[in-house]
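Review form for a predicted model. The reviewer records the input and the model, then writes brief findings.
Reviewer: anonymous (R2)
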Amino acid sequence: METYPPDPLPLGNDNLTMPKQKSHKKAGLDNLANKLAKLVEMFRRGEEAKDFEWWNHNSPSYIFKPLYSYQDVQPLFEEIVEGIISRNPEMLSDYWVHRQLIFEFLVNQTTSGTEKEHLYNEDLVHKAKQFLPELTEFEAWQDVDIPIANLWLEGEPVKLGNVTFATITKQEIEQWKKGGLWSELAPETHVAARVRAPGDQQKAILYTRAKVSQILDVFRAFCFPFGRYSDTWLVGIVGTVISSASTPMRIDNKKYVTHVGVGTTYVKLHKSILSKLVQPQWELIDKLTLKTNYSAMESKLLEGIHWLSESTKPDTNNSRFAKISFALETMIGGEPKADELKVRGITAMLAERAAFIIGKNINDRLGIDKDIRKYYKIRGGIVHGGGNDVSLEDIDRFGQLVRRIAIALLERSDELVAELSTVNKLQAWVNKQKYILPKSNTP
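Model under review:
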């Protein structure tokens, strides 16, 4: 985790670059060029649509009305799109490639200008060969900003992973609202999350949202309350946060009362979130979220963090509790041998692994084992029916226990790519721990 000087964070900065001509060969594009030329010829046999509309990837017939079945055209078009994206998946989105193919090539060779201006045969293939490298070699990086609701930032911007959180002013928000996409019902916003994102605009948007959501998952999983007061911590991307409100109620068809909503807490980034973990732990999170390739256990940890995050969001008590169990099962669950699982059972396996991962001594391990079995009995009641609504205290204690496991796995980050990189290796490690003798008894 890094902090930066409090420079202003201008919004709406579009740094989309022009396609860069790379030095590597254009091998493999000849086949795509021939297919693109063939697609043009197929559309020329149709007639131009009377009302010119945008053509999306579901209905190219918005522009072109072939005299034959549209089903003959779409497979070839999608094959070309997939061929282009496969050569540059980090930069290209399906939406942008569709638009470029249609409006920068197909329209020019079918519905624009006069027929004399259209190319044919080898000239058309040559034109396609010139056009395709502009797509397959496209490269762009741009700053994308996402507003975050109900979050305050005291002081300097904070960077974690690929995301930088910085304060934004009311004037910047008003300028942003001129785009017309900002809902009047949106909560008051003081912070934006910025990501330096690769690709065309659609690719950059999807990339940014995924990265911001991942960091917000981390904040929730490690720092937010699980039980009481969790409903008031409605921090999140504007447009996805559940708003709280009072509920009008009527008694005996005559007396009107108001059930007051839970309200909203403006969470302070440094005081309420970053203070929950020590700096070395944030550095491990930073390292993990910056990675692009994960071991099996690293992927399980990240998915477990996501479910732990989900358990802090407004929901029924039973749903929250179930999500915490999903987090536990995702992080340390999984059995390499089905026959062994039948003998021991899922609860025993999870209790044993949890005890060895976070237990500090024999009494601690016994307590963890007991707690896991207790909480999984409650989980069974929820899943199989007949269980009562769980208490906020049980939600909080179970959440805190699973959070300890997540932190312990995070602190073993080097082992998660080596001796603990798979479920099989995790189980082998647990088995070894059971039979290690105390140092005083070792020959």
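Findings: Residues 2-25, 47-69 have pLDDT under 50 and may be disordered.
Further findings: The radius of gyration is 28 Å.
Recommendation: see findings above.
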